[in-house]
Amino acid sequence: MIHTAIRDLRHRLTPHGCKNVRGVIPMTNDKRDLLTVLKRELDFLDKGGYRHTARAPWRPQFMFQDSPSCLNFDPAQAPKPCGDCILTQLAPEDFRNKNIPCRYIPLDDSGATIDSFYRSGTQKELETAFGQWLRTTIERLEEQKARNENFEVPIEIHVKARGCQP
Question: What angle do CA 121, 43, 152 make, to 5 degrees?
């Protein structure tokens, strides 16, 4: 129970000072490659990482938060604000200041998010939608990377969602 409380607290850390005076969120401090992070997340999902865990078997596992993709996955490390994570850029701008912004990444064109599945879906439905989103996003990033291979242009992700509910 204590581990759950500590883990939840680690994810509630808000990125104090994350906004600049204009209210704009600066670039993430996370130096990991987004494509690599998403590929590892898909591998973790496909290998049953959210179904077979010894970390906290008494509670449901949370997408991103309970995987090695999370900056706060290792409880032995000092907690980092979620705003520092590379995954934050995938959340719609209005949701990037939430306690756990990766929960608000739109998984499909209807705007369904990890958070909306927690509220009204099953774990199986969430894993299916999440896996499909990962595959589609990885494919799109690989195509964009191939097009930009000869240029020193940073890869951009455009989040398309309608009706995203908090």
Answer: 110
Q: Are 125 and 117 in contact (CB under 8 A)?
A: yes
Model confidence band, residue 18 (pLDDT cutoffs 50, 70, 90): very low
Which residues are within 8 A (CB) of 102 and not within 5 positions of it... i.e. 6 or more apart?
Answer: 63, 64, 65, 82, 85, 87, 88, 90, 91, 114
Residue of 90, 95, 76 lying closest to 7 (CA atoms) = 76
Residues 64, 114 contacting (CB under 8 angstroms): yes
Q: With bands split at pLDDT 50, 70 and 90, how would you rate the model's confidence at 61?
A: confident
107 within 8 A of 125, measured Cβ to Cβ: no
Distances (CA, A) of 22 to 14, 25, 165: 18, 9, 25
Given a contact cutoff of 8 angstroms between Cβ atoms, the answer to whether 131 and 49 are in contact is no
Task: Give the pLDDT score at 4.
Answer: 41
Tell me what percent of the chain is helix, strand and coil, each rounded to the nearest 5. 45, 0, 55
- pLDDT (tens digit per residue) in 129-138: 999 999 999 9
Which sequence spans correspond to the domains of the chain?
2-147
